[in-house]
Design goal:
Layout lengths: L3 E7 L2 E8 L1 E6 L2 E5 L6 E13 L5 E14 L2 E5 L3 E3 L5 H16 L7 H19 L3
Parallel strand pairs: 1-7
Antiparallel strand pairs: 1-2, 3-4, 3-5, 5-6, 6-7, 6-8
Length: 135
């Protein structure tokens, strides 16, 4: 079975580097599936999970908070502002972030940046779903 090298990189360093048979990612215009040999492309990513299918038939998950996916026939690079593989997500921290974001959104105060709170909420939900495998 053909494979392609996948790298997920953040400003803090590499998060994932492995050979996979397929990558499924959520772009700003919809979900894409990429197989080895795919035509070159670049697309902006939305907050969401990246599914990485390995040769053994396993699916690994990574929570990605925006960024870009660059596809080449032999390599896929995901450049994200932040990303975490499911096994490294701190569930307690993600749930605390979810609670903080929900509280900010419930307050009807002028000093609350609702757009920022909504993005925090989406990131927290994404991290919790990836950790629990609810994708």
């Amino acid at each position: 079975m053909k494979t392609v090298t996948v790298n997920i990189v953040t400003p803090d360093g590499p998060v994932y580097d492995a050979e996979v048979t397929m990558v499924i990612a959520k772009t700003t215009s919809g979900e894409i599936g990429v197989l080895p040999g795919h035509i070159p492309m670049v697309a902006p990513l939305a907050i969401g999970a990246v599914k990485l299918k390995t040769e053994g038939g396993q699916t690994e998950l990574a929570a990605v908070n925006g960024g870009f996916i660059e596809v080449r026939p032999d390599k896929i690079s995901i450049l994200a502002s932040s990303a975490e593989v499911a096994s490294t997500i701190d569930l307690a921290r993600a749930k605390a972030a979810l609670n903080r974001a929900e509280q900010r959104l419930q307050k009807k105060q002028d000093n609350v940046d609702f757009k920022r709170a909504e993005l925090s909420l989406k990131r927290a939900i994404n991290r919790i779903n990836v950790h629990e495998g609810n994708i």
